[in-house]
Amino acid sequence: MIxxxxxxxxxxxxxxxxxxxxxxxxxxxxxxxxxxVSAPSGYGKSTALSQWALQRGTLVAxxxxxxxxxxxxxxxxAAVESLRNRADGFGGTVMPLLAEGxxxxxxxxxxxxxxxxNELERLPGELAIVFDDFHLITLPAIHQSxxxxxxxxxxxxxxYIASRNDLxxxxxxxxxxxxLRRITTEQLRFRQEEAAEFFLxxxxxxxxxxxxxxxxxxTEGWITGLRLAALSMERSGDAARSIxxxxxxxxxxxxxxxxxxxxxLPEAIRDFLLQTCVLSQMNYALxxxxxxxxxxxxxLEQLEQLQLFIVPLDEQREWYRYHHLLADFLQTMLARNAxxxxxxxxxxxxxxxxxxxxxxxxxxxxxxGRQYEAVVRLIEAHMNELLSRGRNVAIARWAMxxxxxxxxxxxxxxxxxxxxxxxxxxxxxxxxxxxxxxIRFEALADGMDKESWRNMMGEIYYICATAAYxxxxxxxxxxxFIRGDAHARENSFFLQGGNNKHFSVGEFDDHLSYVNDxxxxxxxxxxxxxxxxxxxxxxxxTPMYASYAKLLYEWxxxxxxxxxxxxxxxxxxxxxxxxxxxxxxxxxxxxxQAKGNGREAASMLERLKLMIDSPxxxxxxxxxxxxxxxxxxxxxxxxxxxxxxxxxxLSHEDEAALGQxxxxxxxxxxxxxxxxxxxxMSLGERLYRLLTKEDRLRDCVHVLIVLSxxxxxxxxxxxxxxxxxxxxxxxxxxxxxxxxxxxxxxLAELLLTIGESPAAEARYARQVLRTFTSExxxxxxxxxxxxxxxxxxxxxxxxxxxxxxxxxxxxLLLHHRGETASRERILDALWPEVDxxxxxxxFHTTTHYLRKALQRIGLEGLVQHAxxxxxxxxxxxxxxxxxxxxxxxxxxxxxxxxxxxxxxxLIALYGExxxxxxxxxxAEPTRNxxxxxxVGVLIRLQEREEKRGRYDAAAEFVRQALAHDPLNExxxxxxxxxxxxxxxxxxxxxxxxxxxxxxxxxFGMEPREAVGKLLERV
Length: 1018
Known about the structure:
Pfam families: BTAD, TPR_MalT, WHD_MalT. Keywords: DNA-binding, Transcription, Transcription regulation. This is OmpR/PhoB-type domain-containing protein. By secondary structure, the chain is mostly helical. The chain has nine domains: 4-188, Rossmann fold; 206-264, no CATH class; 266-337, Arc Repressor Mutant, subunit A; 342-407, no CATH class; 410-486, no CATH class; 510-614, Serine Threonine Protein Phosphatase 5, Tetratricopeptide repeat (Alpha Horseshoe), CATH 1.25.40; 661-775, Tetratricopeptide repeat domain (Serine Threonine Protein Phosphatase 5, Tetratricopeptide repeat, Alpha Horseshoe), CATH 1.25.40.10; 781-881, Arc Repressor Mutant, subunit A (Orthogonal Bundle); and more. It has 52 helices and 13 strands. The strands form four sheets. It has a five-stranded parallel β-sheet. α16 packs across α17, α18 (324-337) crosses α19 (339-356) and α34 (617-634) packs parallel to α36 (661-673). The radius of gyration is 34 Å and the shape is globular. The two termini are 39 Å apart.
């Protein structure tokens, strides 16, 4: 749609039927975040909203959507342009971020949305934003951003969405909280008295009450149906006969009535309608180009006067569109009855758009007119421009509709098409076409410029390598990759594509999810890494290093795996794309978990979230958080796993999806750990069927293992053993070890049963069990002092405290960190108000309870009596307080990125604070010291962000510090200064007022004069 028409409120004729109740419902939307106007076509959604918007005194920004807006950048640009019409200068901080796609930050999921929210916050007064025809928007990234925006909308901003469908993102929470209003078909349809008024005011027809009742029953208040009926009856002259024939479903009614209306029109108008119906919008010049006749403006105005479902798109009435029902009807008639005219109208429209510089509109019409040569010409001529504007999806969609012969002499376009097919997993079309392309161009070696031919063949060999990999011909893939490197330029199309910021097709980054022959994979990966050893920054070398490390890890060669990962992560020239970072850190985290370094494994994943810089940030976060949830289950942190399960948006009723295997498998694992066994098995079985069909060996094994554990937990032991035997049968030829060993002791019992049985899988089960024997003894104890005290084994078993004093005694002994606490000191700390004799008795009982609690999870001898007091044996403990001290010392000495990583770990570790949830007086000095250290970490981070010019991020760190030290005047001053530097005057003034209120109430004083002067700089 031409941009100028998208942001004007459509002009409607004066409403002859006054609908105060509907307008009142729309007014109520100004007390909510979102008003959803949802109904099928023809119920007057746009008319009602435009009437309300024109009457409303509050500012209204309007966005009319069409199919081309199903693009993240274009959608939000249209929204910002509409807001800019209502507020001069709006969008200055937003537009640069929109150009980079859905996410361009490693800190925020939606930086563009955050910038948009900040600018909306600064707008004076209330504002309504209307999105019309939202059902045309199907892109998940847009829906996710819209959901993000609505969640955080300022109270003064209200969204109105008109759609034929319900929204694809969850809205029930907003409805429950009163933040969502719904206007549905029931409210939009005419009531019986309104239908009668409509016929009285808009027609010369004088229908009887019985006829009106019959007509109303047939249309059920469908506004467009009533308008069509009125037009039909006026032209037929026989209202009774028309009403008798007026029956059927809405689409049948529409087709019938439109036919009735259409056939009675003058021939000149019928011809005009037929030829221009191919246009999604039109002005007189475009209509004249399409029809080949002058006088189009008069025709458009005449159609408007006849009320023939034509909608003005701007106040000057220069641009129009047909009502969707009329356009659909006319296009069906034209394509069926006059295909030549259909083609000619589209071609003429395409030529006009191309001449005006509207390349995308031109391409759409050339496609509709089957002018494939012109489509390919446009793609080739404008590819770089379109790609730079992020129109990859549009180019791919056009290319997919063009028959193969039209690409024969345009290899770059065909290459883009083939890569598009790979991107949407249409693998089956790639190998044959890639091979034909190779043969065709190898034959041109003597007929082309040598350099051009060489460069082109490099590109073609790369796509042939991709095709060979798709066919799991790993030797062929390696051959073609090496030939591609020998021919292509360093800035080749293929290599540039490999260095993009997007989430890649998983089969090409996580090779072991696709390749079932692990010995063959080892040969392929080592051959390619040897070939690329001199340039580790090759975009496809890094994921191969990660996959080889995963292979060694699966074979339980952990030290070798760690060495490979360290080699590439410490290299100065590896390709640091988001996908590469993701694969490397995922492998490294799993290796650390397998080596018993659970905290480091978790910390790696948390740091990874700060490294991702991608338009597909949300996709990466979903996958990283799923990995964190799986790790949490293995580490016994069920609370974190449950929190992920509640927030991830997945359901056990979802269809299994190849692009979501890691998330859905994590979901099954958490469901099972939470005791929701039937839902876990339901989704797990669907996943297994999908993965079996797709021949994905590794993931089949993983699902079978989780299903086995789930069945065992449900008491269905025989079925559990059957699943595990299948997993062992699949895994043995490839030498899988870690897939079983990572499940820990929970799986050992089942493996032991199989190992002692006559089953064919018994020998391999015993081999896997040897790994368990070496790894799971002796057991260590994990102590969590940050947050609520938690004591657990590596197997995830935790202490259930019998009394609060039992828990406090454990906390006190841990607080002394291996040093002896005298009996008197313990009594004074835990029973200060109790006499010595009774306190001693209670201490004896509490000590007994503590030892029993530790004994129940296999931790005998942890509490020791020494030198008249008691101590905790620390040699078997991994305490997070020790980790805090280590990290804090390291962070002080580290610089730049290393310091940021250490600080991120400290923040993640601190959580709610030292022994949070307990008011232990004896712990208060340590708690205050650690909180002070934590605030110091936040301030160092703020200072680093300030030096980098990232003032919004710096301000956020100060806000966190203030939450822990709310009476610190200097922190307020820091925050105000950051907000001033970020040019956020409103927030700066709010913080100044908060500081003044705090100082007056707490200390009876005013802010320093220097703080007030800061505000003068804005």
